[in-house]
Amino acid sequence: MAREFARVGVVGLGTMGAGIAEVFARSGLEVVAVEKDDESLARSRGYIEHSTTRAVRRGKLSSGDGAALLGRISYSLDLADLKEVDLVVEAVPERLDLKREVFGRLDAICGPDTILATNTSSLSVTEIAVATSRPGKVVGMHFFNPAPVMKLVELVSTVVSEPEVVADVEALAERVGKVGVAIGDKAGFIANLLLFGYLNHAAAMYESSFVTREDVDAAMRLGCGLPMGPLALLDLIGLDTAYEILDTMYRQTRDRLHAPTPILKQMVTAGLLGRKTGRGFYCYEAPGSPVLVADSATPPAEDAHAGARPVHRVGVVGSGTMATGIVEVFAKGGYEVRYVARGQTQVERVRAAIVRSMEKAVQRGKLDDADRDAALARISGSASLDDLADSDLVVEAVVEELTVKQALFANLDEIVRPGAVLATTTSSLPVIECAAATARARNVVGMHFFNPAQVMELVEVVSTVRTAPDTVATALAVCERLGKRAVTCADRAGFIVNALLFPYLNDAVKMLEAHYASADDIDAAMKVGCGYPMGPFELLDVVGLDIALAIQRTLYHEFREPGFAPAPLLEHLVTAGYLGRKSGKGFRDYTVR
Ligand SMILES: NC(=O)c1ccc[n+]([C@@H]2O[C@H](COP(=O)([O-])OP(=O)(O)OC[C@H]3O[C@@H](n4cnc5c(N)ncnc54)[C@H](O)[C@@H]3O)[C@@H](O)[C@H]2O)c1
Fold first, then answer.
1. I want to staple 2 with a disulfide (CB 3.0 to 4.6 A). Which of 171, 303, 321, 554 is the partner?
2. pTM
3. What per-residue confidence (pLDDT) applies to 592?
4. How much distance in Å is there from the Cα of 459 to the middle of ligand 1?
5. How many whole angstroms separate alpha carbon 399 and alpha carbon 341?
6. Residue 28, C-beta contacts closer than 8 angstroms, at least 6 positions apart
7. Residue of 10, 11, 13, 16 with the most ligand 1 atoms within 8 Å of its CB, for mutation
8. In three state form, how does the secondary structure of 473-542 look?
């Protein structure tokens, strides 16, 4: 029988502790909440009251239940008030010395059966446990931010944790409505080990001026369906906490990708800790507020497309999934579109696919008959590149092979009128290679659409070292007219989204390979803990393991970063022909239809 918990303690009521106290009180437990000084205590009490009032206002809690919740929390500045509790969750700042000191004191105060849990994100639970005389009763309970909302709790046991204690804590997590994932003691556990390398990488991209903060955040939200962009998430987590987590992970893994990127330290030193201080990567209305306010880095509202050239006629080359989607997007956006496929059969196939897709949109009420007819009337197909001569913009979406693309660009350069913009939608080849095949490199740009192009709002607009500003402005203006959110970046492998996404997927494979957690637990941790729409293994199986491996290899060859080397397990699965859904087997088995 699982142990009954009636009273629990929470120590440290900051970003996490306040939320954890709320979670317990909401489930009917008495909570003794301890802070270090009056000022912090008043602030935390304010957080909890504010959060509860908001839940009542939004109808998520009755006012009676809200009052009862608040009534179950008592506040204190003295750890001695935790003498009678069954379990304590510690959520003080991420410093080992501080946590060991708190645990040493708790050990002396609490009864011998009291379970002591740490909410550490990255520190060794074992090292914290051995600061007490009861290491068997010490575990990790790693909640996610915001604790009242996120359902995951990583339950960390050490080599000395007593199995009954772990079982009791698992039952408690379930009682308070959380999903517990049981794991061993390793810096970063599951979710943070996968998340923080990515967050650090995003911060480094921003630091190197490769991308703006707004663009990197929009790219990951719109390109991957993540609930928040990486820099907004770092602000939510707190830059001091993020720095400590990365630093601890780096010391344990010695993976350079975990070494905190310098800007984090600079911001922490300057007191720019994120939302909690009102300023981090972004500026907020007030400390603790989620409301953004404009600052000097906010992009000006005035015309971002100054110098854009007029575009009326658009050419699209290719007949695959991307080309078909792109033709449809341009036609719906009001452009005259001429597409070129290799032969008449392909020309007809593309048209039929577009007609089907638009028909579906009409049936779903997303397009009316008149708009569909008008869009279809704007589309014409041809088997000859010569028909693109009078285009203002040509977007190429042929097979992802450099020699094919280079030959095409050389042809287009001869055929298409001077001054027209030539764009490639490559996702992994250097845009400059296409540009260099022409005598008009200044007019060549990357326009990386996402699949399915009709649905995905994001377009990465990629400029090479030779792309002229008015070419970029033209691509941006076109994207705006198409209703797409364009982000700009330079011509580096993976651009923004793939460069951030694939190393994370690769890290997940390495974690599986190391037998730290199962594919199901890793997928659950990322979905339930971080709000990702799919877990890494689900996504890898959808993308195709061969594609993932090819992209990861490209990244590795471009950056020579040891941490980017493809996971051997990924290589082996591809060699064995386990490519994911398309082959019926990848990380999971599928029935091929
Ligand atoms: N921020 C996140 O997203 C997140 C997510 C999961 C876990 N964590 C972990 O939770 C822990 C707390 O992080 P946070 O982000 O809430 O930090 P925080 O800085 O927001 O809050 C820490 C709180 O502890 C209080 N405190 C400091 N020393 C104390 C003491 N001796 N006794 C009592 N209270 C004390 C501080 O006044 C502050 O209110 C860390 O271990 C962190 O790694 C953080």
1. 171
2. 0.90
3. 59
4. 38
5. 12
6. 72
7. 16
8. HHHHHHHHHCCCEEEEEECCCCCCHHHHHHHHHHHHHHHHHCCCCCHHHHHHHHHHHHCCCCCHHHHHHH
